[in-house]
Write a structure and sequence with these properties.
Elements lengths: L4 H6 L2 H23 L17 H4 L1 H14 L8
Length: 79
């Protein structure tokens, strides 16, 4: 999972290692949650940070929105 360049410059190698381990644990948790949902999907974006995802990778965000609209998947879909 990505992070922003500014944060990368501030963190020491030890902090970066801890952050990476934390990110991996979060990813496993999210993957387990998504696996429990019949139509859910986890999209990992390695080259963008959480807070800047919409600005750094707007193409990925728009693709995900288009996918939900095209397939009817989402929290408001009636089954």
């Amino acid at each position: 999972m990505g992070s922003d360049a500014f944060t990368d410059e501030l963190h020491t190698p030890e902090i970066k290692a801890g952050s990476w381990e934390s990110a991996q644990a979060k990813h496993r948790c999210f993957a387990d949650f998504v696996a429990s949902m019949p139509r859910a999907e986890l999209r990992r974006v390695d080259d963008a940070g959480h807070s800047g995802l919409i600005w750094e990778r707007s193409d990925v965000v728009l693709d995900a929105i288009r996918h939900v609209l095209a397939t009817g998947s989402g929290p408001h879909t009636r089954v």
